[in-house]
Amino acid sequence: MVARILQSDNAMRLSPNHTALSDSNAELIAALKQSLATNDSATDDALLSEDRDEYEITLKLFFTPDTTAESRSEDVARCVDATIEQLKVKSVDLLILAFPGIVLDAEDEEDAFDEASLKDIAKVYQAAQDLVAQGKAKGLGVSEFSAARLKQLYDTAAEYNDAGLPTVNQINLKDCCVMPADLIALAKDRNIKLFTHGDLKEMLPQAQLDDLMVGTDAQTRFTAKWVSKVTCVVKSRGVVEFKGYAAMIES
Predict the structure, then answer these.
(1) What are the sequence ranges of the domains in the chain?
(2) What is the DSSP letter of 220?
(3) Residues 251, 1: contact at Cβ < 8 Å?
(4) What family does the database annotate (predicted)?
(5) Complete DSSP assignment for 46-65
(6) Strands 140-143 vs 166-171: parallel, antiparallel or unpaired
């Protein structure tokens, strides 16, 4: 198997036609097409115009369904290392992990992880905690966790290391119209921020990946191991200066 990481330039500079639908992954596809068109060539030019301290850098890592906990644990470091190398920084401020199949809605908001699932989730999260200990990420978060699941993860993470306990949980209110009361209470008790997001449940479906890669080698089967989105906000102005996408593709 051969793997490569596609990284986009600044998606904020893409044509407005690609970003008209905020609830689609059109921006992601356009950004990756741009990366392929430029042969994924790196540049020595700085992507950020201000000093590092002027930015709040958030990296969201989306795992794909057909990957193991072991490979995801390794991919956490790969994704973060690729991002900080591209941005020419030493760390990201917030790393958010988005696991496939975890969606908070009215039907499963009370569901907790079974023992095997919690073990797998914890293994991956602990890899992220290691990056906090190394100084490559300043804080960690998750996406779409119910109160029960968030408590399980928090307690398990605390047993492993008190560095990198979850401080953010992202919720898509299209799936869960009202923030659950138990989740609000837990967040308040554990000092966890609840943010909303509009990301798709599956950022890069296989059919779209096939269409994306068909020009490179029509005879090769490509699979995505993960997708990421990095956002750099100028803190003093609240303006997004840089937004980039990446994907690790295996063939």
Answers:
(1) 56-250
(2) S
(3) yes
(4) Belongs to the aldo/keto reductase family. Glutamate--cysteine ligase light chain subfamily.
(5) -S--S-GGGEEEEEEEEE-T
(6) parallel
